[in-house]
Every structure is written in structure tokens, then in C-alpha cells.
Amino acid sequence: MSNRQWLLAARPETYPQPEHFQLVAGDRPALEPGKALVKTLFLGVAPVMLRYMRNETEFQAPLAIGDLMMGRGVAQVIASDCPELPVGSIVQARLGWQEYALIDTRQDPPPFLLAHHDLPYSHGLSSLGPSGFTALIGLREIGAVQPADHILVSGAAGGVGSQVSQIAKALGARKGVGIAGGPEKCRRLISAVGYAEALDYKQGNINTALDQLFSQGIDLYFDNVGGALLDEVLSRLRRRARIVICGAISEYLLPREAQHRFANLQNLGRQDARMEGFFVFDYGQHYPDYASEIADWIRAGQVSPVEDISRGIETLPLALSDLYTGSNVGVRMVHVADPDPMP
Ligand SMILES: NC(=O)c1ccc[n+]([C@@H]2O[C@H](COP(=O)([O-])OP(=O)(O)OC[C@H]3O[C@@H](n4cnc5c(N)ncnc54)[C@H](OP(=O)(O)O)[C@@H]3O)[C@@H](O)[C@H]2O)c1
Fold this sequence. Notes:
Layout: E1 2-8, E2 21-27, E3 36-44, H1 48-53, E4 72-80, E5 90-94, E6 100-103, E7 112-113, H2 130-142, E8 151-153, H3 161-170, E9 177-180, H4 183-191, E10 197-200, H5 206-213, E11 218-223, H6 227-234, E12 237-245, H7 266-270, E13 274-277, H8 287-299, E14 307-311, H9 316-325, E15 331-335
Parallel strand pairs: 8-9, 8-11, 9-10, 11-12, 12-13, 14-15
Antiparallel strand pairs: 1-2, 3-4, 3-6, 3-15, 4-5, 5-7
């Protein structure tokens, strides 16, 4: 049986596009001792993949031209010599961009069993997976969200951002203000994503809008984009404000010399404020607890995962491009196959 795989064909100068990948068909791998053979159901894309493609990360093995593209997904265990990954279970794991994969528990973080079978498996890449966990960790562990906080979120219509306002509310806070690009995205921020107000950073003067909406200042800023906008927020902090540095997608394509130079950092000291980054993979031991907590919110109607799904492994390169052209609303992922019926 064949196993289609996407390989890295070229390193992108700008954002990832289909010509940077090559689709090949190999053989489905045979089960090996201590491993599990899994069938890919969904594959996710993430901004960090551009950095894998350019070999700019320290936390993953170098990716050579011709290597299998790295990526996480949701899969069904179809054969196993690994007691922790029994046949029939559904896992969230590092699979690579391919239809079948051999996995084991030595991955860091290790494969994570999806326990909430009453909910769609795609949620294993959204609210019950890294982007939901990122929103929860950022808000609670890093941002110490409080009920009275005036919350601002950048990249609010994206995978992580689409969950921040909903999870903040589930944690007892008020609805946040979201920033996204374009009127349609901003409309959806309010109608479908759970924000109270939406700001379009591509139109009008966002600084004036921030002054109006946050006349008393910002308590909690969940930042997905970095750059000049972060500097504007730094100048509008309330006392004891918290800035959660989740990501900086506006700067990923810029050479170091073109990246924003901050003018308002001293305001952190003046306002007894705090700015802190984090990495979701450092919290792997808490994933089962996070998943159960968020699953309960979904069942209670407090969190509605926003997913942007295309069908077919062929659509993966375009899915990744979408993150950089801003074409996604919610967690961008690809449906690869349905699970096999299990006896
Ligand atoms: N700390 C962690 O452990 C962790 C984990 C996961 C993700 N992250 C980070 O979290 C952020 C969101 O990740 P995600 O996976 O949810 O992706 P995402 O938000 O779905 O990323 C795509 C969105 O980013 C926005 N964008 C793209 N280029 C931009 C630019 N130049 N300026 C401003 N916005 C731009 C676009 O929205 P608009 O059309 O609205 O511009 C696009 O739809 C990223 O920075 C990512 O690196 C961090």
C-alpha cells in the first residue's frame, strides 16, 4: 500500500509556497519493534514551519532538502508493538506530512492519546491540541488572567487567537478586543469567534482606535504578531499589566535589521508590568488535563472551536501559505483520511 509524502524541495526566500514542496509516493512502512503504525487523519500547519524550512529553529532536527516535511497531526493506531499506543486509539503526534507514520513514545512531547471520543477528531489539532493549549497556557499560566481585565489580542482570527477570547471568558474574564486583517475577518471575530470588538489593522488608524477602546489602558495583551503593534501596546499599559508573548508572525519574514526597534519598553518598569514568552511544548505533561478542561467547556457551549479545513493531502502546501497570506480564519488544517473501521 502506498504512502504519499510531502518532501522539502527548496528553502523559501519569502513565505512558503507550493513550489517549495514535492509530493512523492513511497511504500507504507512496516511495523517495527517498540513502535506504532498510524494512519493520518488530519495534519496541521503552523507559522513555525517556515522556520523549520529555513533551518532557523534550535528545537527541531535540521531539515535537509529532500527530507520529509515536519508536522503534527491526528492519527489512528492501526498496528502496534507499543503498549502505550494501543491499536484503535486516536493520537496527536509528530507524524510528518504523510499518510502513514511510524511513531513511538520517545518523541518530545510524546504522542498524546485523544480521550474525548464524543468530540470531532479535528479538535485534536484545534481546541484539544496545541493551539487550544497555547491559548490556555498563555492566558492562565503566563497572563494570570483576571475577571476585570481589559484584554487585547492580536492575530485574533487565527488558530490560537480564535480561541483566546472564548477561553478567557471560560476562565471568568470579560470578552476581549481582537485585531485582525480585513473587514470580513473582523465581522467574523464578533459573529463567530467571541470577541466584543474587532479592530482591522489593515484599515484606518489602529492607534486612534486603541486610544478610544482602551482609554484606561490595557491589562492583558495576548500577542501573536509582535512588531510595531506591540510597541503601541507597550505605550498603553495599565499598572500591573501583563503581555503574553505568544508569537511574532509579522516579523518572521523580516531580516534582523528590518525588525522593529522598540521605543516603549521602559513603560514595563513604569507600570510594574510584565512581558513573558512561553513554548507550548514545555507543558506536555499537562496536555491530558488541559484537554479535559477544554472538552468540558466545548460540551457546555462555552468554547466553539473555529476550524478551517481543506480536504486531501495535496492541499497541505497551500494550507501553510494561507497562514502568511492571511487567508485562514481559525485553525488551518488538512483532512487526510477517515479512520479505518475497527473490530
Ligand atoms: N508560544 C507558543 O508555544 C506558540 C504555539 C503556537 C503558535 N504560536 C505563535 O502564535 C501565533 C499564531 O499561530 P497560529 O498557529 O494560530 O497561526 P495563525 O494565527 O492562524 O496565523 C496566521 C495568521 O497570522 C496573521 N498574519 C500573517 N502575517 C501577518 C503579518 N505580517 N502581520 C500581522 N499578522 C499576520 C494572519 O491574520 P490576519 O489576516 O488577521 O493578519 C494569518 O491569518 C504565531 O505567531 C505562532 O508563531 C506560539
